[in-house]
Design goal:
single chain; alpha/beta; Rossmann fold; 7 helices; 6 strands; about 40% helix; globular; disordered N terminus
């Protein structure tokens, strides 16, 4: 390949890939704007809590009977505050599952008052509760008054049932409002990504 051919190739490469690269850099811009404007919500899976499901002696208001965040999970949860601030969200209305790992994630995010939303509770053990809880979340979210951005902290099974996404620990999904049985996924987001 001659020098001239090589430079022509490079020029063609940059011309073809530059718009794609710019789009990739801005691919979540519309999602963040929608979240800031109250036209979307962020629902995330609790931060890292090693294991699967809950122990057999699980009790809702006794964290010692539950699978909980480890220190890495607490750090993950705290990483949301600067990540969201970078996208214009300094505070939010935060709703959470009543499971300790979700409440701890929500509290460590430090975005504002945390409110229980029982429809966000895990139905991992009782899959037949899933449709009713999913519908309850949709109705509750769609009934919220305008205000600060909305952040929901829940579980993998709940997010998968609502959005068809299997999120990793500490991964969030931005969903367009109003929510429905088939919501529009605007972005998958996580600090450090």
């Amino acid at each position: 390949m001659t020098r001239r051919t090589f430079f022509a190739f490079l020029l063609g490469f940059f011309v073809v890939t530059a718009p794609t690269q710019a789009f990739a850099n801005d691919s979540n811009a519309e999602a963040w704007q929608a979240l800031n404007d109250g036209e979307a919500i962020l629902i995330l899976r609790h931060a890292l809590a090693p294991g699967t499901g809950d122990p057999a002696n699980f009790k809702l208001y006794d964290c010692s009977t539950q699978r909980n965040l480890n220190e890495a999970g607490r750090e993950q949860a705290r990483s949301w505050k600067p990540f969201l601030a970078k996208h214009g969200i300094e505070e939010a209305r935060v709703f959470t599952s009543q499971w300790c790992r979700c409440r701890d994630t929500a509290n460590e995010m430090n975005l504002g008052e945390v409110t229980d939303m029982p429809s966000l509770n895990s139905f991992f053990r009782n899959r037949t509760d899933g449709p009713g809880q999913t519908q309850g979340t949709i109705e509750r979210v769609n009934g919220l008054e305008p205000g600060l951005p909305v952040v929901l902290v829940s579980h993998q099974v709940n997010i998968t049932a609502l959005a068809g996404i299997f999120p990793a620990s500490n991964e969030g999904v931005v969903l367009a409002l109003p929510l429905s049985d088939d919501p529009t996924v605007l972005a998958r987001v996580a600090p450090g990504r």
